[in-house]
Amino acid sequence: MHKQNMILRHKLFDRICHWFVVATGLVTFLTGFAFFFPSFQWLGSIAGTPQMARFVHPIAGLMMCLPLMVMLVRYYHHNKWEKNDLTWMLAIKDVMFENEDKIPAIGHYNPGQKVLFRTFVVTSIALTITGIMMWQPYFAPYFDAIAIQWAILIHAICAVIMLIFVIVHFWMATWVEGSVAGMLYGYVSRAWCKKHHPNMLNDPELKTNKQEKH
Ligand code: HEM
């Protein structure tokens, strides 16, 4: 379909941020799991040696969390909780079976995505702070042993929570046809919006077929 008939859902800057986060996130998770959980040590081979995995992990982690936070700030206005959201959540069975007529109309993001958004906010901030606290030899010497132990525990819990939500996010993104194409090329069709995010069409910014602005 011609771009003129399509609606801009993700600006170029956000798309670059998103796929950069995916690439650096892959390296962060593989190297992190390799030295955090002994049974996943074999994953460290992507970095060459276990020492290299330890060196790469905090750098890749920062390269993942910082653009993710930028993206979260830019998407904040789309993720505010709205009055229809609880009703949508209670109608989750109809959402799964695509009974659109029984689901309240939602806007730019559905409540499931909004929960995911909040989880990414909390876990990316917690992972960054605790990661810096345990970063040897640069920052860890400034904290006592008890603080570091808490940091390690919180870091591991947040990493597992983030991973679970990323898997759910991946599944949701690939389940909804046209969603990944939207994140790759920026545009979605009017029919896609009507089916998945009908209130998005009421947004005066989206009504005009504007060219992409950053
Ligand atoms: C290969 C893995 C991934 C795929 C295929 C994917 C796909 C997508 C797609 C299609 C969207 C747009 C959804 C829509 O338009 O409704 C999106 C949004 C988003 N993704 Fe991903 N994603 C992946 C990994 C990640 C990771 C690792 C993170 C961060 C940890 C992430 C964070 C986000 C955020 C913050 C949004 C904006 C959603 C919002 O504001 O609620 N994604 N992703």
UniProtKB/TrEMBL annotation:
It comes from the Bacteria. It is found in: Cell membrane. Its cofactor is heme. The keyword Membrane applies. The chain crosses the membrane at residues 20-43, 55-76, 115-135, 147-173. The lineage of its organism: Bacteria, Pseudomonadati, Pseudomonadota, Gammaproteobacteria, Alteromonadales. Residues 9-183 form the Cytochrome b561 bacterial/Ni-hydrogenase domain. Coiled coil: none annotated. NCBIfam families: formate-DH-gamm. One of its GO terms (cellular component) is formate dehydrogenase complex. Belongs to the formate dehydrogenase gamma subunit family. One of its GO terms (biological process) is respiratory electron transport chain. It comes from Shewanella pneumatophori. This is Formate dehydrogenase subunit gamma. It is a multi-pass membrane protein. Keywords: Cell membrane, Electron transport, Heme, Iron, Membrane, Metal-binding, Oxidoreductase, Transmembrane, Transmembrane helix, Transport. GO terms for molecular function: electron transfer activity; formate dehydrogenase (NAD+) activity; formate dehydrogenase (quinone) activity; metal ion binding.
